[in-house]
Amino acid sequence: MGKYEDAIRLWRDYGVRTEADIDCRLGNFRILFAYNSGRIENGAVTYGDTREIFENGRVLNYSGDPRALFELHNQRVCYEFLKPKLVAKEPLTIALIKETHGVLTAGTYDERRFVERGERPGEFKKHDYVTGIAEVGSLPEDVENDLMELLDELADYEGKDTLKVAAYFHARFEYIHPFADGNGRVGRTLLNYWLMIHGYPPVIIHDEDKVAYYGALARYDEAEDLEPMRLFLRQQTERTWEKALERERQRGEKD
């Protein structure tokens, strides 16, 4: 059994069924996820600020970029927002995608997007934003249909290679680029939501590995090649859970 399979076994052995179970098993994970996910696109995010926000709800003596604090606060709120939905295993829907975006990007849209372009958190983009080297992104009028098609495809792949389906979901979501801003944070959050409601461990995409992350996204954008993303998510899952697995091994040796 490999490290990835060990991570799956560990997660399932936890038997997460309640919101209290989620807090118990993801107490430190949620902080590390928020820090790494935020920092991928905003270098002003720090680990110390992230921990203070999650543990105390505020940061004392802060003099940095206020947007970074909004984003961290929103990650904390989003964690609480999604907890009951994880317990109920609510399926991904257009409404849930938009709600998640609204929570994660509240108060973070700049004046140009909010005033000049009329963009709003929780709403699909109104203008033609593109992303990546290949400058991909659905046209605004196509976003909802493209996302509906993606959700239908996920339902069709139920029970098949879950990691490959997760890789497809994330790569395709980022390809569609449905919002004016926050697509990365929303996509990484929804990736973990989808994994957990299907009985798989959530993953931290580490900031220091973002070159490989962007490279895997680019391979899908340019050639619809999912293998780099599948391998990347496998490696990141192993890295995410390696310390928990080591603690389990050490406990086993003492018993």
Task: Note the main attributes of this structure.
single chain; 255 residues; mainly alpha; Fic-like fold
Q: Can you walk me through this structure?
A:
By secondary structure, the protein is mostly helical. It has a single domain (about 5-250), classed as Fic-like fold (Orthogonal Bundle). It is about 65% helix and about 0% strand. It has twelve helices and no strands. The protein has helices spanning about 5-15, 20-25, 30-40, 45-55, 65-90, 95-105, 110-115, 145-155, 160-175, 185-195, 210-225, 225-255. α5 (about 65-90) runs antiparallel to α6 (about 95-105) and α6 (about 95-105) crosses α10. The longest helix is centred in the last third of the chain and has 28 residues, at about 225-255.
What's the multimeric state? single chain
**Structural class label:** mainly alpha
Architecture in CATH?
Orthogonal Bundle
Number of domains: 1
CATH class: Mainly Alpha
Rounded Rg: 18 Å
Form type: globular
Intertermini distance: 22 Å
Q: On the 0-100 scale, what is the average pLDDT?
A: 94
Helix-strand pattern: HHHHHHHHHHHH
Number of helices: 12
Helix proportion range: 55-70%
The CATH topology name reads: Fic-like fold
